[in-house]
Inverse folding.
């Protein structure tokens, strides 16, 4: 075994192939050609005197030797990343990486605002793709196909890292101007009198929180429909007697711009009942999620810019919010 021939890039290739069990996916993740991945794998096979991965129709199967090596390789890559982060000076003006960001509909505006008003003026050679998230992208984030996602608390993945942007502390009632729901004190019984339209993201909550709380109180709610689109929600509410709810300050800011739409903050006791239905093992709120495999200084810098700006915008939006009726 000629261990002196081992190099860092080959270890990166090994870890990626072991995770994807596919050389093509590893090449895409690492920005390499397939022939470059093959060359690194050939080097690894010679160094460790083992084929490491057996090709099958459904993909690669790691050998026993590869499975034994993987934890050590992962530790070496992590240590290298920590060394690079601690001792490499990052200059955003010369960085040239590309980042893909997915965000729920409510977060796309503020995410784009952060990119164009905060990040690009400091790092003009970076490029970004900001897309609306409408399905569970945990695997794509873990694999590095998506660099960042701005999501609510309901996500999972063993290789995901999550930083809390803001906890959910307020919830808002939404309906058309002049809706009778605004005529009296807001109570749970009063809310249940009207059809309810759920603003939902890819069915991450199987039953609306209002329906869950109502059921426990011996009440019922007619669910008029579901949508993950703010513009569609606005049309539904303007054209009917339905009401909706949101826990997002950015959603409320958008809806305030829609003519004849009204929002108000729900009473604290109702908010606590609704939030109490969410139990996913982490603080209920908004998160920036990314993969643990990315250790680049540029990625870390972009992450911090996103966190700082989104947090600032969130609390600015809260400060100018409406009070309960």
């Amino acid at each position: 075994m000629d261990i002196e021939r081992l190099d860092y890039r080959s270890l990166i290739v090994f870890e990626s192939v072991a995770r994807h069990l596919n050389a093509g996916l590893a090449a895409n993740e690492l920005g390499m050609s397939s022939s470059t991945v093959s060359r690194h794998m050939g080097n690894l096979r010679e160094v460790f005197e083992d084929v490491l991965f057996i090709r099958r129709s459904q993909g690669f199967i790691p050998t026993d030797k590869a499975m034994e090596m993987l934890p050590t390789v992962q530790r070496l890559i992590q240590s290298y990343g920590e060394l690079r982060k601690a001792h490499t000076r990052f200059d955003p003006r010369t960085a040239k990486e590309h980042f893909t960001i997915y965000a729920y509909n409510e977060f796309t505006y503020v995410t784009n605002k952060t990119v164009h008003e905060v990040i690009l003026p400091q790092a003009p050679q970076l490029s970004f793709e900001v897309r609306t998230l409408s399905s569970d992208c945990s695997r794509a984030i873990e694999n590095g196909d998506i660099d960042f996602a701005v999501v609510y608390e309901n996500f999972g993945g063993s290789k995901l890292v999550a930083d809390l942007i803001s906890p959910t502390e307020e919830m808002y009632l939404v309906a058309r101007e002049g809706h009778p729901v605004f005529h009296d004190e807001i109570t749970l019984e009063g809310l249940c009198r009207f059809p309810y339209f759920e603003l939902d993201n890819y069915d991450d909550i199987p039953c609306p929180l209002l329906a869950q709380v109502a059921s426990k109180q011996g009440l019922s709610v007619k669910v008029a429909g579901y949508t993950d689109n703010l513009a569609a929600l606005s049309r539904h509410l303007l054209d009917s007697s339905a009401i909706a709810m949101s826990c997002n300050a950015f959603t409320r800011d958008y809806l305030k711009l829609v003519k004849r739409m009204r929002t108000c903050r729900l009473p604290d006791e109702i908010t606590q009942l609704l939030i109490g239905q969410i139990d996913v093992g982490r603080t209920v709120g908004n998160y920036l999620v990314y993969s643990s495999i990315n250790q680049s200084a540029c990625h870390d810098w972009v992450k911090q810019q996103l966190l700082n700006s989104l947090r600032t915008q969130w609390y600015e939006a809260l400060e100018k919010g409406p009070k309960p009726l």
User: Anything to note?
Assistant: Residues 3-87 form a domain with the Arc Repressor Mutant, subunit A fold (CATH 1.10.10.10).
